[in-house]
Prior knowledge:
46% of the residues lie in helices and 10% in strands. It is of the alpha/beta class. Among the domains are: 6-98 and 157-236, Rossmann fold; 102-155, Helix Hairpins. The chain is elongated. The termini are far apart. 22% of the residues are buried.
Amino acid sequence: MAHVNIKELLDNGVHFGHLTRKWNPNMAPYIYTERSGVHIIDLYKTAAKIEETSEALLKIANSGRKILFVATKKQAKDIVAEKAKSVNMPYITERWPGGMLTNFVTIRKAVKKMATIDRMKLDGSFEALSKREKLQINRQREKLEKNLGSISDMTRLPGALFIVDIKKEHIAVAEAQKLNIPIFAMVDTNSDPRNVDYVIPANDDASKSIDKVMSYVIDAIAEGLADRKSDKDKGKEAKAAAKEATPAPEVTEEKAAVAETPVAETPVAETPVVETPVAETPVAETPVAETPVVETPVAETPVAETPVAETPVAETPVAEAKVVEEKAAAAATSPKESTKKEK
């Protein structure tokens, strides 16, 4: 890790702060003096903070995690993009997409959409679309590339954020705090350093100052990546050496002769099985005493017969009634006959 030269920081204007009337009182420990209404930053503290930040970033890079660089200011975007590309790290230089960290799943879907458009162009299905659809898809692809093209390789949340001007990138700071992602930042005299884990008090408005601080940071990250690569190579070499150090066991002529000698089969003598007669023990039968069953006579209870009273059936003299009627009829007809005879 390179040593920070204070003379170089002074030449690049890292010590210039904001106007005294715009200062944040929480930056007082990092301010050296005031000159012509402008605060001057203490470069000794800046150098110490750069070394502390570089050491922490080296460890993160060595662990294999990504560091996301955020800078949307005109003075910083080109410098940050160039530096981040040199170490293959993701960066945001256009506009911070809301929910970039807290809603990372949706952002990944947008990145995948960009990849599907690229596949369409390769497999020829893009040519089958109409002219209007092609134009719309191309516009969508350009917009996605502009905003999210730099984070297309970031498949998971970053291990740290490096921000230039935390006052402008306050949304990124808030999202990182919510997810407990460590924040490294260049903080000017008009910003609040309490929201940042690793503060680098420096001028974040001059392109020279940004370039100088970024060069120290990028060197530390590159060193961490190189250490990681060398550790991997050493591990591979150690495995290969371990394989070579344990050769296959050599088969000597004596061992081969021992292996080829036939094994003599020794006949196993059959021992005759002697049958021992089993003595039968007579089972003594014990007579069972028969207990006589005593019959108890059952007393017969006489059943009292109740005489049924015969109800006489009244006979209706049907025949006699008929006789009486016949006589009455005869009596009625007899006077008429007598009158006829008289006449």
